[in-house]
Amino acid sequence: MKLSDSPLADKSDRPTQIDRGFEYDIRDILAERGLSEDVLLATAMQLYVPHPGIETKELAEEVFKRELDIALSDPNLCILIYAGVQLERAGEAGELPNLSKDSYERDLTFLVCDEVLGMSISTYIAGHKGMFEYVRFDKLKPGVIKELGPFMDDVVAGLIGGVSSSMYTRGGI
Questions:
Q1: Model's pTM, two decimal places?
Q2: Considering its fold, how many domains does the chain have in total?
């Protein structure tokens, strides 16, 4: 099951009392890196295409925000995103095992674990359709994606690709 298959309300298999007393919210961690909801939305809308159920950009923005809320409510997804943040920090500090800081900064083609992380994120959110959207965002690098480092560009492309795919799949539901 992919995240986009879950109903818009809480999953039925969740405990009745979900501990929401966590100290760290992935939204805050992303915002610290310049990746606020507004930045993610603006980047996503650069590749917006009218689609049945979301014929206008205004409706697409509304649906994208809703789908982003659903995605970022899942702790598994948030931890995958956080892994990318931590990998980016380690790369910036030259602390990745078996990879020089120079190789990290040049984002050499032999480094594919960043793509694996982006594909995992998009697939977790929206299945194989999400991966197609990930590839579109990863190749075209709209908005903030082109400004990000080797890990975060794929993490954000995966997040936006998965959420966009859910947006197109569920439309104006």
A1: 0.89
A2: 1
Q: Is 34 left (phi over 0), alpha (psi -120 to 50) or beta?
A: left
CATH of the domain at 87: 1.10.3760.10
Q: List, run by run, the mean pLDDT of 10-residue segments along the chain (173 residues).
A: 58 53 89 98 97 93 96 96 98 95 88 95 96 97 97 98 94 65
* Cα dist from 61 to 53, 69, 151, 156, whole Å: 12, 12, 26, 17
The parent domain of residue 108 ranges over 56-173
Whether residue 99 lies inside any domain: the answer is: yes
Whether 142 is in a domain gets the answer: yes
Residue 126 lies in a domain: yes
